[in-house]
Target: ZN574 protein
Amino acid sequence: PEPAQTPPQIPVAPLPAQVSPQPHLGELLAEAPSQFQCLECGALLLTPGQLLEHQELHLKLLG
Model:
């Protein structure tokens, strides 16, 4: 029996930086925001109140 031919290796291009490795994550957050993400550092918080307090920390650090 002849050995099976291996397909040629296709070089994998690196993903662009702006493409999220989990594209479905944003859709889930948009539908039912059980977590609130800080746009400054990407931290996930559980309530809008926590997010506000967290963002105030960023403002204090910058000021």
About this structure: The chain has a mean pLDDT of 75.
